[in-house]
6-phosphogluconate dehydrogenase, decarboxylating (Kribbella solani), 476 residues
Amino acid sequence: EKAQIGVTGLAVMGRNLARNLARNGFSVALHNRSQARTDALVAEFGSEGTFVPSTDLAGFVESLEQPRKVIIMVKAGAPTDAVIDELVPLLDKGDIVVDAGNAHFADTRRREAALRDQGLHFVGSGVSGGEEGALNGPSIMPGGSPESYAALEPMLTKISAHVNGEPCCVHVGPDGAGHFVKMLHNGIEYADMQLIAEAYDLLRHVLDLSPAELADVFRDWNTGDLESFLIEITAEVLSQTDPTAGGPFVDIVLDQAEQKGTGRWTVQSALDLGIPVSGMAEAVFARSLSGDVVRREAAAGVLPGPASPKADVDRDAFIEDVRHALYSSKLVAYAQGFDAIRAASEEYGWNIDLGAMATIWRGGCIIRARFLDRIKEAYDRNADLPSLLVDDYFRDAVASGQEAWRRVVATAATVGVPAPGFSAALSYYDGLRAERLPAALIQGLRDLFGAHTYRRVDRDGSYHLEWSGDRSESTQ
Ligand code: 6PG
């Protein structure tokens, strides 16, 4: 009896995906470079379903029914290429290779083209939800040929998370589309976390609230528009106490945020596409700054700022203001994220259904949130929405919160608590809605020092002024 699908790479994510498949009734071939992991999986969880373990890759391939479906779950980059190189000679035309790791979408495009040349299908699939999600229902973002998705769909939609009966798994588009959308998910995850951290920091310093009191604030926020997995776990982390130090857990954690690279990739890709993703960029930069110990130590206690961050504000009113600032900034981050997906979809011809992406993220993934339904509805109302921020729902949400948002950014600046996410988001919002931007002056400067030309508001064409001569205008 051959297995219906195989998983190679049985570290925690691979192991949990394999168990999820088996628990849902699919027979799963298993392989891992060191056999101990395969044995451990079968010994511990063998009773959960049908597992077909193999000691080497050839045996693993042999144990699969055709056309074969192989999920690779190893580290992104060279380790993924190594497994693909070893696997490909063992496969037959029509077989499907799924990379479920956090690959860079450009690598996925390259691998998909290479395997397509050999008659194989390569599916770069985003999988979000961490260990828990992989086991009990992740959000799945597969990219690749429609035929390969048709073959995988029954399994992927069965093991994914579901919201209102709908699977959080949709075919994103060809080649790198799935991994691009997963990368954007992570960029938004970075922005979301940075905004939550700023809200926490401001409330803690301005109002002098304890982490336990702040946990209650986040718990309360989680009953409204902000309801989301990240807000929920923020309350959990803030209410944790450290048994050895006896105080709040958050106070004994080193304040240097690490990153494995997907947030940085998001920002790099958006720069290439020319799409402002300032919320995500500030989140990546804030992590970098937090880890820049040398400069932080040189500056702490040396660079002057306000004497105390405490401000004379009404407690409940300020909490409500910060809630608005957080929600509005979050809407900006999502609007920017969807702009980047739309731009990439156009650039690479992916034809991505933006509303469907919101559906995938409603459950299973790290950024799962109530308001993703609102994004889906916005694209249902208008598939060609130029920006999420101009949709009625989002426009009204920001309209009702923008004064509060401005007060929070002003307070942060006054008391000296850094809020790069809140303020960058607000600047983007004001830039977006401005009737006229100072870009006109920049164009004038460019024309003066480099004859880079400018366009006029009243006539078509490109123009240049003889700045060092008679200042006459010529058409270029
Ligand atoms: C997910 C997560 C996951 C990612 C972590 C860590 O969707 O399940 O995005 O893929 O690995 O969020 O990312 P950093 O280490 O870069 O913070």
User: Anything to note?
Assistant: The longest strand covers residues 121-128. The chain has a mean pLDDT of 97. Residues 315-348 form the longest helix (34 residues).
